């Protein structure tokens, strides 16, 4: 370890130059001149080492310092050690920044670091996507110039970050801003995409509004007839009609509650066990008899069933999917319509299809048919007792079986509702015989 620079070392170095001059001056005379020469030699020596130091720091910039002698040796070595420490700290700081940015990129929220005035210092990828920022092009830009929303500008200028700010951006995203002090003179802005949460909240409000509306109508009818029945002068025919209507409205409410419970049960169901064998042909034979009873010969109903095509899945959910599609075809098509139900094996899997030659459905309605309480013809649906929940139940039941509902229809050309269960859910042919028997 080299000795540290001290006043003793500087004094001994000065004595090394000055003592010979002092002795020569005492011997030969001219002491001031000899001392002046010694001082000039010391200054020249130090100036020479300063030039070496300056060259090393600003021109050479190598890791190895120039060789030093006497008092300059610990100075060069100390600068060399300080340079090593600074480079190590820079590497540690760069690694820390890299880890911070890597962690920030993994966050499910956007992150923007700004100064208190709003100048952007850094932002992660998600914030660039949500706020349409560009990095590093927007480095040094003021965020108020890039996000031109009056509410956001007021929020940033008030510097009151105890509450979050929610905005709908021009890209249709709903985002929530939370700002907090990050370091001296800097702010950390967390941007969360709450679009889905906003949509779910809207769906929840619509759901309760629709449920209350659907229940209010039969309840109003029941209340009106009950008030009428309090009148002793109500004749027998009118009383009989009132009782019949009340029973009808009660059945309607009961059906609505049952479908709501079914939908809630399917939506909240844990991942189901798809190893249960479901005898679909037997299920469809029962549905065939129920559909014919419901139709009362108002429709021509044809079932084409592959009697050997069974699948693995949840029998209750599959029954809900099959029955809702069949009942919808009977309830919502005019008299004289031909309804064909087909259960067959295709290359993609087991396909269920319900088609009719009725009036069809306009294209603008098709994407919304699986929404809760959505009806193409609200008046007709209420007359037939439809709740608008059937296709929503079908949609969620099929999602648990890796399938989805497809709807094909054009006005005047009938409608076709179908879905395909994947091949892996089909019971092997060795366990069942394949045969197709049409029946009407």
For the report, how would you describe the main beta sheet? Answer: 6 strands, mixed
Q: Tell me how many strands there are.
A: 13
Shape: elongated
Report the total helices: 12
Instruction: Give the count of structural domains.
Output: 4
CATH class of the largest domain equals: Alpha Beta
Helix/strand order: HHHEEHHHEEEHHEHEEHEEHHEEE
Q: Taking strands numbered 1, 2, ... along the chain, how are they ordered across the largest sheet?
A: 11-12-10-9-7-13
The residue fraction in helices comes out at 40-55%
Verbal overview:
Keywords: ATP-binding, Cell membrane, Kinase, Membrane, Nucleotide-binding, Phosphate transport, Phosphoprotein, Transferase, Transmembrane, Transmembrane helix, Transport, Two-component regulatory system. Its main location: membrane. It is found in: Cell membrane. It catalyses: ATP + protein L-histidine = ADP + protein N-phospho-L-histidine. Residues 210-425 form the Histidine kinase domain. The chain has helices spanning 7-28, 31-60, 72-106, 125-131, 143-146, 150-158, 195-229, 236-267, 280-295, 315-331, 378-383, 390-399, and strands at residues 110-115, 120-123, 165-168, 174-183, 186-193, 277-278, 300-306, 311-312, 338-346, 349-356, 406-409, 415-422, 436-439. The longest helix has 35 residues, at 72-106. The chain starts with 6 loop residues before the first helix and ends with a strand. A hairpin with a 5-residue loop joins strand 11 and strand 12 (415-422). It folds into 4 domains: 7-94; 107-193, PAS domain (Beta-Lactamase), CATH 3.30.450.20; 211-267, Helix Hairpins, CATH 1.10.287; 277-439, Histidine kinase-like ATPase, C-terminal domain (Heat Shock Protein 90, 2-Layer Sandwich), CATH 3.30.565. The protein is 51% helix and 17% strand. With 440 residues, the chain is α+β, with helices and mostly antiparallel strands. The radius of gyration is 43 Å and the shape is elongated. The chain has a 6-stranded mixed sheet, with helices on one face. The protein has a 5-stranded antiparallel sheet with strand order 2-1-5-4-3.
